[in-house]
Amino acid sequence: MNERTRKEPLLLLLPAALLLLLGFVTPVSAMLLMSVQSPAGGFTLDNFQRLFDSGYNLQAAWRSLRLGIVQTVVTILIALPLSYLMSRASSKLRSFLLIVVILPLMTSVVVRTFGWVVLMGPNGLMMKVPGAELLVKGTQGFLGTEAGVSIAMIQVLLPFAVLSILGVVSGIKPQLEEAARTLGAGYWRSLWHVVLPLTLPGIVAGASLVFVLSVSSFITPRFIGGAQIPVFAQTIYVDATTNLDWPFAAAQAVMLFAGVMLVLIATARLGRTKG
Amino acid sequence: MVKSIPLLAKIGAVLLVIAVAVYMLMPLVVVAGASIGSNRFLTFPPQGFSLEWYTEALTTDTYLAPFRLSLMVGVITAVCSAVLGTAAALALTRFNIPGSGAIQAFLMSPLTLPTIILAIGALSVASMTIGAPNVWVLIVIHTVITIPYVMRTVTGVMARRDPFIEEAARTLGASAWNRYRLVVLPVARPGIAAGAFFAFNISFDDAVIALFLRTPQLETLPIAIYGQLEYSTSPTVAAVSTMMVLLTVVLILILEKLIGLGRMFVS
Amino acid sequence: MSTLTIEHVTKSFKTTQVLKGVDLEVDSGEFISLLGPSGCGKTTLLRCIAGLEAVTSGRVLIGERDVTHLPPEKRHLGMMFQSYALFPHMSVRENVRFGLRMEGKQSKKEQLEIATNALERVQMAHLADRMPTQLSGGQQQRVALARAIANTPSLLLLDEPLSNLDARLREDMQIELKELHRSLGVTTVFVTHDQEEALSLSDRIVLMNAGVIEQVGSPDEIYSTPKTAFAADFIGAANLLPAQKRGSSAITSEGGFDIRIDASEADGDGQVMLRQEDILIAARIEEGTPYPVEVLTRVYRGADVVYVVDFAGKHLRVIAPGHAEQLSMGPAAIGWRPLAAQWIPGAVPTT
Predict the structure, then answer these.
(1) pLDDT tens across C182-223, in order?
(2) Each residue of B230-253: pLDDT tens digit?
(3) Buried/exposed B149-161: b ≥16 CB within 10 Å, e otherwise
(4) Burial degree of A13 (CB within 10 A; 0-12, 13-18, 19+)
(5) Are the beta carbons of B233 and A158 separated by less than 8 Å?
(6) Cβ contacts (< 8 Å) between A1 and chain C: which residues?
(7) Are B264 and A166 in contact (CB under 8 A)?
(8) What is the pTM of this model?
(9) Nearest C-alpha of chain B: how many angstroms from C44?
(10) ipTM
(11) CA angle (B180, B181, B187) in 5-degree steps
(12) Ordered alpha helix ranges (H), C214-280
């Protein structure tokens, strides 16, 4: 409108933008740069070459990918009925479930992991669940197993999936289901043909978020899985802080970054074509 | 509501609720339970009853110093990201800015980028420029990752306002300063407060960035717990963890009161 | 002396010109309506008067003062918004006091007193301590009105203030608004898209279309002698018949009927306007020169009956009293008193 109103939004945006430049753009670009910088300062792809030559780190990357896919699928399978239930439940039950979902989400990862460590030890409560031995092929407990890692991870991934899907499924009018029922669809068929297709955007968004979080987590896998079954983010952490091999850690982080971006871009594409 | 839900679906729903509640809360219940047993070795279900681990947690410097550091970092982070995030959200919701979509995406991007990538970058930049990370590096990174949450809560509140209240204030003679002081900020206040509390929670609980940036002088409470977990799991860690969970419960209640959990988390 | 002068105001948003040169003078104490379809520029014009939009060119004067470049907070006017725009975090009383507080001329006690008086004028004093969210739409509307008049503005601007009320309440509020205007005597500019509202409230109506003023006049003038086809059609949904004027007769393009009109305008192409309530309809009409029609549809509305009839291939709407003889589908006759048919010059728009 006038001089002042053109400057005002700029002044409001500037502080946050500058801080992001300092605390986000700079570190992320430094990391990108570091991954392709030779000790002499030139350009090199040696760090990436090392990753592909290293059986250990590469194996960790594959494990992360595999666990990421498994955890994403299981998380979505639990989140779907749960979010639908929450969206159609009484406000009391809905609030209760919202708190049940949000409390672990807002609890520190170290505290949550601690709880799982206690539960999953050889004498922990988890081993008393019928069928537990089958899942971990023995009696040493869930610690050190991929099943244990996934069980502990899904607890914190579930809230993200539920919140993504709940936002969408809450917007689906119950009248649509009623219409389907009057048109001769049974309960399950109305869910399958009406609710599920409309929930798809939430599922896609939730799945991509869950996958990204899963492959970049390392604290829970470290304490539940331990050193025997390292995940990718864990080898990055060890290379960066224990081995102090920053360029190598950076190269791995770039690979992780690239994988994550791929998933995010694919999701965005999918979202766009779906309208 | 759709009536005539098959029995199978009803039974399934009840089982699902129970299973999910147990699954989600069990680890927290276990930690709380383990913290009140009298046995020095961590057990669950607890044997006996004792609050001595709480006394120990609150008196030893192992946890007190990290607690003070976490509290300070959390409060400063909350204030900084409340100020910066609110300013940005007010700009984006109240003005038609060319390219506002891109600006918003940029400011929200720390939300989608895995924290570990930012953490490793922050560590290397801090080491190369100032030698080692210090508390201000931690605060800057925490502020960066919490600004999106403040923006989200403030944007949410502003989106629900009557967009004409500022113009009404103008026609009634309010200057720019008075419009911010008497109209815009009071209207945005629940969003600002909710965002600030959420930012505090994230900063106070963060272990990923704090782990990368940790130095002997820079050990936050989650890192102190992390360190203990590496060696032993004593009931004292359980006591500290339980207090952290209780703090989270308090924060959730505050958020529920301020703008409601549904509005806060379900977009 | 005019309180509000608008001199050739134009307003463009990017490439679209919303106001294409508007001139208007509003007299002191006058109640004037800006009427037109959505997108005609009436709200933009009001916002330009308020200073909420900067004019692209032209001048706005309030009294003798050129306010073209003054921000809204310095124009000293009262404005009521369509959404009411009550401050949700302030009580009703604080909302109404806000303008006085900004002005800061009186003590807080006096301000509260004035605010209470303003609330009394709209019968809302008993709810002064409520928060806006605790009020019904009609109550919020009254509070918004009290807030707009509390610091005795030189100009009261109302942006479709009644459009969010249900029909019954809207009628009550029209009467109250008119009484309030009479007792305050404040110059009022009222934006509406509802022609009935404009007709019943205004001293003068400014009919706008596509960024220009089509016609300015008293409600009676606007209704009975529309100058353009748009004015005729927008106000009172007229029947328009394309025709050619020769002296005092208009020959309709379809059917070639000869309709008697006032001869004062120049000959040429144009349209004959017939108000639906001016047309008489019956199975047979003995006097004058009735025209044969075919009744197509009948809609009974209690007080009256609406007929859609075919008049030489053109559909006309006719309103007959509810107690009159009910016609069935099929042949009938229509007629009207001499000179009820108005001549509107200008080529027929192709829409």
Answers:
(1) 999 999 999 999 998 999 999 999 999 999 999 999 999 999
(2) 887 788 889 999 999 999 999 999
(3) bbbbbbbbbbeeb
(4) buried
(5) no
(6) 53-54
(7) no
(8) 0.88
(9) 14
(10) 0.90
(11) 75
(12) 219-224, 229-234
